[in-house]
Amino acid sequence: MAISKPLSALSNGRLETARLLHETPLLRAMALTKRYGRIAAVEDVSLEVYAGEVLGIVGESGSGKSTVLRLLNLEELPDAGEYQLDLPDYTDENLFELDRFARREVAALHIGMVYQNPHLGLRMRYTSSGNVAERLLMTGEREYAVLRQVARESLSASEFPLDRMDDPPRVLSGGMQQRVQLAKAIALRPRILLLDEPTTGLDVSVQAAVLDTLKRLQRDLRLAMILVSHDLGVIRTLADRVMVMRGGRVIEMGLTDQVLDDPQHAYTQQLVHAKL
Amino acid sequence: MTTTALESLALPREDYAYGFLDAFAKRELRRRTLKAIAIPGYQVPYASRELPIARGWGTGGLQVSLSLVGPESVIKVIDQGSDDSVNAANLRRFITRMSGAATTTDVLEATIIQSRHRIPEEVLREEQALVLQVPDPEPLRAVQSDSSKTHQMHADSDYSQLWLVLYEQLVRYKQYLQGASYPSLVNGRYVISPSPIPRWDTPKLHQAAHLTLLSAGREKRLYAVPPYTDVYPLEFSDVPFQVEDQRTWADAVTGVVNKFMNEIPQVDGTSAYEVSDSGYLDKLVAQQQGERQAFGATYYDDEGNFYKDGYLKALVRPQ
């Protein structure tokens, strides 16, 4: 299903009002704070993501980007803050206050995650299709043929060569491992996809191919995505809006073109103009 | 003034408490056993006592047997189906010496059957208790080495990793590979590792009339399958669980088929087969020699059909 409408639909009178004005955000996080001992990894971070939107998070190493993502994936609990997803059963509920069992269910059903390091997201010795099927097994699917079918569909949606679907990820290349992670993340058709530096460590041509796949999937499935990267090229290619973080705080937020072409904050200016 | 000698008030001195374990140990074990029966399949921790046999030789089963035994009990001990192995004979002698209970090799007469890795061929009755010795009680051990995490997984009923192992087996080998200790869901709640009984014996636990107690002495865990409780081996809905296919195997002495067999390699490279349940085999041999023997119904009939219709499904191999 494509979301872009033909021009005729737009030209018959009125234009649509901006979705920001009349839709409720799919994801809303308010005042997230997370400390590890004396170190404040994330301080007072708030963000909203709408359905089908891509939010980029940029910042240097140690700026708290990955911690935000781990909080949003419900892997860790914050010291303070609220987290809401616009889901039928969980509207207006702070997901951080759910019990462990419900949190696991929400994360499994509605949130997909792709890690920078495939070892975090994949079982390296199990088959690639098994890695994808695990998501369905977590939600109680008990028919082998269905598992095979969904694994095949998900892997082909992430443009993974199907003749290798039963190879374990440890024998695959880095780009293919990321495609397996992606297939695993979208196996249950989640509403939101979290990407933690998905293309870091890949060479430029493979990186471009993976970004293409991401872009197509995002359009086809109307996924909301949060993309963490320190690579401004990746952010410019995919993100609609961008959030700049430093020292655990958000220092600038806005449309991608606006922030990258006309940065206001001194640090962002430095970041945009930094070249080797 | 009359003085009462202290000896006349106390019980006569004995070298050992009845059933070897002291009263506190037996009380603790009985409480744990009751808890295990109340929560089918849940692994109850207990204080495993020292016994005059080494850990790993059946101390878990022995402690449960000693806590159950009484003077009127009839004990049968089997080791891989056999009544006469050294381990089985020693355990049986120890239990009778400590309790005065009678012993038997005929499963029909026994009230307590302690077993290492087999369930007898003849159907057990309501008044019988089966005590299984367990080396590793944790079905999740192979997929999660951290026991605090496995406790959490049991609490959440999160067995997806066991299913993933089955999926991997089907992808690679087109069949479930687990030969013994096949993970099974008890009462729709807890997955147990039913000690290493062969797959052949796993269905016998389902809606069984008898009480099954499983005890791991070294790991200090005790769990139970109470009478008339659902036990289902983990299986995908379109790939049924199968027991060992021994349809062409016939016992070398009696010619009996469709009982669980031991394979005995021969000098010429072929194999001979022998019914694994030695108590049952002894009765068959005695009957062939003209003695009258009492036989109970068996779990699998001579055509290999399981006594509960429809529980085992037809063989299907995945594509």
Describe the model.
The complex is a heterodimer of chains A (276) and B (319). Chain A has helices spanning 7-11, 19-22, 65-72, 100-110, 118-121, 128-138, 144-157, 174-186, 204-221, 232-238, 256-261, 266-273, and strands at residues 27-36, 39-49, 54-58, 80-85, 111-114, 192-196, 224-228, 241-246, 249-255. Chain A is α/β, with parallel strands linked by helices and 276 residues long. Chain A has a domain at 22-121 and 192-273: 3-Layer(aba) Sandwich (Rossmann fold), CATH 3.40.50. In chain A, strands 5-6-7-3-8-9 form a 6-stranded mixed β-sheet, with helices on both faces. A 3-stranded antiparallel β-sheet of chain A has the order 2-1-4, with helices on one face. In chain A, strand 1 and strand 2 (39-49) form a beta hairpin. The longest helix of chain A has 18 residues, at 204-221. Chain A starts with 6 loop residues before the first helix and ends with a helix. Chain B is α/β, with parallel strands linked by helices. Chain B has a domain at 23-233: 3-Layer(aba) Sandwich (Rossmann fold), CATH 3.40.50. Chain B has helices at residues 6-9, 23-38, 59-68, 86-99, 147-156, 160-173, 278-288, and strands at residues 44-45, 74-79, 102-103, 112-116, 129-133, 184-186, 190-192, 211-216, 221-225, 231-233, 261-265, 271-275. The longest helix of chain B is centred in the N-terminal third of the chain and has 16 residues, at 23-38. Chains A and B meet through helix 4, helix 6 and helix 7 of A and helix 6 of B.
